Amino acid sequence: MSEPAVLRALLDALPAGSVLSDPDQMEGYRYDRAMTVRPGMPVAVVRAASTAEVQATLRIASRFSTPVVPRGAGTGLSGGSSAVDGCITLSTERMRAVSVDAPAMVATVQPGALNAEVKAEARRFGLWYPPDPSSFEICSIGGNLATNAGGLCCVRYGVTTDYVLGLEVVLADGRALRLGGATIKDVAGYDLKRLFVGSEGTLGVITEATLRLRPLGPLPSTIAATFADVVDCGRAVARIMATSRPAALELMDAAAIAAVERVRPMGFEAGVGSLLIGQCPVDTTEGARLAAACEECDATYVALTDDPAEGELLMGARRMAIPCVERLGTVLIEDIGVPIPRIPALVGAVAEVAERTDTMIPVIGHAGDGNFHPLVTFDPHDTSARARAEVAFDRIIEVALEMGGTITGEHGVGSLKARHLPGQLGADVLELTGTIKRALDPGGILNPGKWV
Question: pLDDT over 90 for what percent of the chain?
């Protein structure tokens, strides 16, 4: 049927103000933060305020065989929520409720709530929600669930899926499922909630999550170490992780340091080859072990502080790295991961790719779990520079796979890396993936053209 019929059905079924169809109003819903992904134009944007409204939207979409692109805060970095032509963009931004059950140490959260809002509400009860993406202040829990987001402190405390006890999910046909619950242990049936975490909106739309909380921990001590060469920094990471589990362990190479220094000076002298920032509980001896490992790997400077303000200054600078690099040009953001012993080889290989392709590639990373973000940067007005950047992007992914790694550690496959997924999964796993997709979304309406 025609697009106007789909739009009319949405307008008839949903409350006034829930459906946008004006191109100017829809423009901001077409994109996420993947700068090189070209989005399509939706036929409508639905701003759902409840599970019932999500169900109504998906029933209509199924009836008209209209694609649906779920969307949270739009902060994704892989094009996972970028619109496709003729789709319904289904935004969960209005679904913001957060409720904490302090004695049970759980939070019941709607998908539009920001990660920072969940942390703030948990803190009121002396509790903590650990998953900690760099964009925690602006990213939504729904997006975190869709990509199984990680972040700075996951090396010690785990990623999003480690905190999911239960989900409410709406399937393509409009059925709402309750998966899991609020108990710590639950092995009744298949663990289907894990299937939806990280599925990037291709299997269903998450409308509520029951999340595990932790008691607030002690304030961390912070270590900062500089190195003349990023490979030495990588060696230090491998040595640290062989014996310790810091709360965070973050790497920045020289280009990333310089990009942040232009915006928020940290006081590092020109010529610093790389920076390693680590955090660990202040009441342990781990800080001293981290410092010793850095010195053994030829660190040029090592400092350890228990001052929370100093620690946050350094971690805040690390969080700013991607926005600071984006000021230098268009960025193809890698999200590769490799086994920890391969980190020195990886950072060395990225430097070689940058030199060979004559492309600026600042490197940042959650070094403690082997997840790195080479930021392939180019002038969008220079056709040759863009071509070289795309070659560099593809080669870095190939290097990660050659090292037994992954094309994405936390940002998701989305549109940006979809063509590389077969190279990691192989034909048999892709076939099984397609079987699962067809079972849950037989019409193929959920987030088409992304990774399945």
Answer: 90
